[in-house]
Amino acid sequence: ISADQPYRTAYHFQPVQNWMNDPCGPVIYKGIYHLFYQYNPIGNGSPDGPRVWGHSTSFDMVNWSPQPLILEPQMVSNMNGSYSGSITIIQGYIPAILFTGITPQNEQVQDLAFPKDISDPYLKEWVLVPENPVMSPTLENNINASSFRDPTTAWRLSDGNWRVLIGSKIDRLGLALLFRSMDFINWVQADEPLYSYDQTGMWECPDFFPVYINGFPIGVDTSAIGPTVKHVLKVSLDDTKRDIYAIGTYDTTKDAYIPDAGFLNDSSLRYDYGKYYASKTFYDNLKMQRILLSWINESSTVEDDIKKGWSGIHAIPRRVWLDKSRKQLIQWPIAEIERLRVNPVILPTQVIKGGSTIEIPRITAAQADVEISFRVRDMPIIERFDASWTNPQLLCSQKGPTVSGGLGPFGLLTLASTGLEEYTAVFFRIFKAYDTNKFIVLMCSDQSRSSLNPTPDKTTYGTFVNVDPIREGLSLRVLIDHSIVESFANKGKNVITARVYPTLAIYDKTRLYAFNYGVNNVDITWLTAWSMRKANIA
Ligand code: DQQ
Question: Which BP terms from GO are recorded (predicted)?
Answer without folding.
Answer: carbohydrate metabolic process
